[in-house]
Amino acid sequence: MVEELLTAAVTVGAAGAAYVIAAARVVKQYERGVVFRLGRLHGTARPPGFTLVVPGVDRLHKVNLQIVTMPVPAQEGITRDNVTVRVDAVVYFKVVDASAAIINVEDYRFAVSQMAQTSLRSIIGKSDLDDLLSNREKLNQGLELMIDSPAIGWGVQIDRVEIKDVSLPDTMKRSMARQAEADRERRARVINADAELQASKKLAEAAQQMSETPSALQLRLLQTIVAVAAEKNSTLVLPFPVELLRFLERAQQPAPDLSTEPRPASDDRAPGP
Known about the structure:
Blueprint: H1 2-23, E1 24-27, E2 31-37, E3 40-41, E4 49-52, E5 58-64, E6 68-78, E7 84-95, H2 98-103, H3 108-126, H4 129-134, H5 136-151, E8 156-167, H6 170-212, H7 214-229, H8 242-252
Antiparallel strand pairs: 1-4, 2-3, 2-5, 6-7, 7-8
Helix pairs in contact: 3-5
C-alpha cells in the first residue's frame, strides 16, 4: 500500500513537473507577452518575468518594446520644381500596445517600412529642392505625421523620422556649383566696390585737409619715399615740385655786389643863366 502511494506521488510529481516545464514561460524586461487561448485573446499582455500558460491550449507571442531603427530605402522622385532626386531616410519607432501590434496588423515592421517609403515619395513630390536641402526639420516633422497617423491603430508610435541624404544628378551639381561661384564673385565685387567708395571718401577728406596745410603734402611725400625706399629692388621715381626747383634756382644765383656797381654820373655843371 505504501509503495503504491509512493509510486502515485512520484507519478503526480513527475506529471506536475512536466506540466510546469511545458507551461513555464519567461518574458524579458523589454518584452510583453500576448496570450491567445484557443485562438482568442486572453486577458491583457503579460508583464516581464515568469508566467504560466496552458500547454496545448495557449500560445504566447512576445512583442519587443524597444525602439526600432529602420532605414528607409532611397526613393527616387521629382520635386515640385521638376528636379530628379534620390532621398533616403531613417525611422525610429516602438510598440506601445503589444496586443494591437499582434492583432491589428500582420507584420507591423513591414507595414511601417512600406508606409515610410510611400510617405517619403509623397514628401518629395510636394517639396522644392531648396526645402530638401535647407529646410529638412520641417520636412521631417511632416513625414513623421504622415507615418504616425496610420501607425497609431497598429499599436506603434513613431518616435522620430530623419532624412539622411539627398542625391542630385551630376548636371544639377555642376549647375549649383556654377551658381554658387557666381554668387561668391558677385559678393566679392560688391565688397571691393564698397571698399573703393570708403577709400575715396577718406582720400577726399585727406585732400581737403592737405589743401589747408600745404606742408602736409611735402611730409606725405617724404613718408612715401621712405616706404618705397625700403624695397631695394625697385626703381624710385621721385616727383619734384616745380616751386622747389624755382626756389633752388633763385638760391644758386649770386648776390649782386654793391661795392663794384658803377655809380650813376652826376651832373656838376652849374645851371646856366
